[in-house]
Amino acid sequence: MKIVYMGTSDFAVPSLRALHDSHHEVVAVVSQPDRPKGRGRKLTSPPVKQTAIEYGYSTLQPESVQSEEFHRQITDLIPDLFIVVAFGQLLPQSLLNIPKQGAINVHASLLPRYRGSAPIQWAIIHGEKETGVTTMMMDKGMDTGNILLMEKTSIDPNENAAELHNRLSKIGAKTLIRTLDALQSGTLEPTVQDHDKATNAPMLKKKDGEIDWSLPAHRIQCLIRGVTPWPGAYTFGDGMRLKIFQTNVLVRDITVPPGTIIECFPGELRVATGEGALAIQEIQGASGKKLPIDDFLCGCRLPDGTCLG
Fold first, then answer.
1. Distance between CA 247 and CA 276 in Å, rounded?
2. Which of 3, 10, 11, 205 is the most exposed place for a label (fewest CB within 10 A)?
3. Which domains does the chain carry?
4. Measured between alpha carbons, how far is 64 from 90 in angstroms, rounded to an integer?
5. How many other C-beta atoms lie within 10 A of the C-beta of residue 161?
6. pTM confidence score
7. 104, exposed or middle or buried, with CB in 10 Å at 0-12, 13-18, 19+?
8. How many whole angstroms from its chain centre is CA 307?
9. 89-119 pLDDT, tens per residue?
10. If DSSP codes are grouped into helix, strand and coil, which group holds residue 206?
């Protein structure tokens, strides 16, 4: 099949690599425009474009997929199929009508749960034990198309969003190739989503990382895992903004207000929550360096009774 591949972020790279190794023909790769990045604000190509250049594919980077020029460019390619993975723009129906066999999307959740741009993060934040990857036929809605194939995987209790992202990107690549093989053999049986069971996974904002210490310890730990590496879990204490990366849940009776440091000595920092306590293992303070808690406490003393938040 003649395929136009649309993707932007790291999540979409394994699928492009798997497609390159298949017998299908990629006639073009579409990605978001280059953007300034880092302290020097250097113009940087997205990961999918970098991979496309590595393979010698023709690349397109429209500011908007709604433009007439982009529609003409895609129409001229006479594609059989679109494959869309973490692209970042919603495709209008006029664009979806161009390929002969429609458009397939690879989505990092078990649809119809967690529709939207941050399914990996919200699944962890909500304490899900299982997630996966779904391939679907695209329509003009946000992740509302008919389901093609689904691959499930357990979420490790200590896994953060970055780690799960990397695992799901590889699962997504394998599921995509299985989907294409089934499409060509005529064995795909699309299933209509149960829209009544749909949940949303909107884009995260920086404020979503602020810790509410009145929540139970296990829910705070899920938040920390879910927002790592971005936007990062944070709180405030002793005039500092503290970013927290790893914790252990402690089951114990709490008699002090949530957010209160209940034990602080070399190698140990425990914070009261609405239910139980959290032992902070990895933290970042004013130095800007992520440190194990014992190294952090050597240079920054947080006395018992200090209230975070």
1. 13
2. 205
3. 2-197 (3.40.50.170), 206-299 (3.10.25.10)
4. 10
5. 22
6. 0.95
7. buried
8. 32
9. 999 999 999 999 999 999 999 999 999 999 9
10. helix
